[in-house]
Specification:
The structure is a single chain. The protein has 231 residues and is α+β, with helices and mostly antiparallel strands. The protein has a domain of 134 residues. Helices cover 46% and strands 19% of the residues. The chain is built from eight helices and seven strands. The strands form two sheets. It has a five-stranded mixed beta sheet with strand order 1-7-2-3-6, with helices on both faces. Strands 4-5 form a two-stranded antiparallel ribbon. α6 runs antiparallel to α7. It is elongated, with a radius of gyration of 22 Å.
């Protein structure tokens, strides 16, 4: 294990969610999770006896989970050759059209403050503020200062894992995990129809629709409808 790997492993093992969100990720909409990430400053040893706590605020926007297959992911840009080989292994073992969930996230940092107080007191103050606001989707995370973004990713991973069961159940109950003869999940068919509607209204560039059809390998099936949009 390299030094970088060892450092990341240290950060992960020393990241703790002090107050998790009171709700799981939404199955059918975007979830807006506000976070406070508290750390001891990396320069703590130079401070002497004075206590300080670094407080980073922001929000994580979790998009509606999408039903995908290994065949679809193999056509998504941004994966390395190693990742694509892994997807090929998954397809061979479970089938290229086995449905799974794909979660998309966007982090929007808000501000960072250095508070002249110990972490325990700072956390209690933040908890009091959260209780007054009453937002069930606010979290407090204790992380490591010089790699705080790794601590945030650890939180996102855990949040996804805890939400997976309920998301799968709700999608399955509505039949959205069902795969048709072409290997396309019902959820994907509905998403394609929504993209057609957005393009028709002028709210989406046609290239985005074309890209999605290519990823699913169904452009020929929708070709006439696609070109009709330009008439």
């Amino acid at each position: 294990m390299s030094m970088d790997d060892e450092r990341i492993a240290y950060v992960v093992s020393n990241t703790e969610v002090l107050r998790p969100p009171r709700q799981t990720l939404s199955t059918f909409g975007t979830t807006n999770v506000y976070y406070y990430l508290v750390t001891e400053p990396s320069y703590r040893e130079l401070m002497g006896g004075e206590e300080e706590t670094v407080v980073r605020e922001g929000r994580v926007l979790a998009e509606r989970p999408r039903v995908v297959t290994p065949a679809y992911l193999a056509n998504v840009e941004g994966f390395s050759d190693h990742a694509k080989r892994y997807l090929e292994m998954v397809a061979r073992e479970h089938g290229s059209n086995t449905p799974g969930l794909f979660y998309g996230y966007r982090n929007e940092p808000k501000e960072m403050n250095i508070v002249t107080s110990g972490m325990t007191a700072v956390v209690h103050k933040i908890e009091d503020d959260i209780e007054k606001e009453g937002n069930p989707l606010t979290a407090i995370i204790k992380g490591v200062d010089d790699m705080w973004d790794v601590s945030l990713l650890k939180f996102i991973f855990d949040m996804t894992r805890h939400s997976l069961g309920s998301n799968v159940y709700e999608l399955g109950r509505r039949g959205l995990l069902d795969v048709d003869r072409s290997g396309i999940p019902l959820d994907a068919r509905m998403s394609i129809e929504k993209l057609f509607s957005l393009v028709k209204k002028g709210e989406l560039d046609p290239s985005a629709l074309k890209l999605e059809l290519d990823r699913w390998g169904v452009f020929e099936e929708y070709e006439d409808r696609f070109f009709w949009l330009f008439k």
